[in-house]
Amino acid sequence: MIGITGVSVRFGGVHALTDVTFTVPEGETCGVIGPNGAGKTTLFDVVTGLRRPTAGSVHLNGADVTTTSAVKRSRLGLRRTFQRPQVFGRLTVLDNVLAAVEWHGGGGGLAADLVGWRTRRRLESERRAKALDVLDRCGIADLSTAYAADLPIGRRRMVELARAIVDDPDVLLLDEPTSGLDTDQAALFATVVRDLDATVLLVEHDVGFVMEACERVVVLDLGKVIADATPTQIREDPVVRAAYLG
Ligand SMILES: Nc1ncnc2c1ncn2[C@@H]1O[C@H](COP(=O)(O)OP(=O)(O)OP(=O)(O)O)[C@@H](O)[C@H]1O
């Protein structure tokens, strides 16, 4: 669950967000759309913990995280992707994904590393199998040994998605997920996201993708929520049409 209550952000005289309130219930996929400068990135930064709101609060699964750091929010089960995909270029695709689960540790410390305890080996092979399964779901299993830096942006975006979902996040934030993807890749991306158990919040310019991938859409305009409804209702909303869809 993501709860955003009365969130306002000001940059000097600029009101980037004004009294933004909405909740994304557990397991729902919610898209945020709006014209340039509407406040989408600012909202994203507030939920991920990169920016503190001037007023208001953010809750993740019932816990107030308004002043919690981005790192602690990730420990609470929040994962995100970036507008420009962030991958470890000098690691293989598989290692990029494994990197997201290594923080759990393997138990046994250095001794287990040196001796190669059976439990440690079993844990590693389970993680590897899980990572390969996620790569398969993301359509990049054949690229597991490729270096991430050598991949075109569309593939890198899928690596980033695989890394974000391998640890079964409770909350997933996707920033402009279709940018750089062709139509087939965008359709696969939407399928992978739809099949997740996570609560998903995504910011996207491609309205068609949002309507396809999301159960709910929040429309921002000049920092304010002007609509919060199903994709069908959003398409027919005269206020949204006037402000954004045309
Ligand atoms: N660091 C900042 N300092 C000053 N003003 C900012 C800052 N970041 C954003 N703004 C302003 O806040 C408003 C909202 O910006 P924001 O980037 O959140 O919108 P957006 O909907 O993500 O836009 P885009 O679709 O172009 O990425 C804009 O008027 C922007 O100029």
Automatic annotation (TrEMBL):
ABC transporter domain residues are 2-245
Source domain of life: Bacteria
Keywords carried by this UniProt record: ATP-binding, Nucleotide-binding, Transport
Q: Name one GO cellular component term.
A: plasma membrane
Under Gene Ontology molecular function, one entry of this record is: ATP hydrolysis activity
Instruction: Tell me what this protein is called.
Output: ABC transporter ATP-binding protein
Starting at the broadest rank, the lineage of the source organism is: Bacteria, Bacillati, Actinomycetota, Actinomycetes, Streptosporangiales
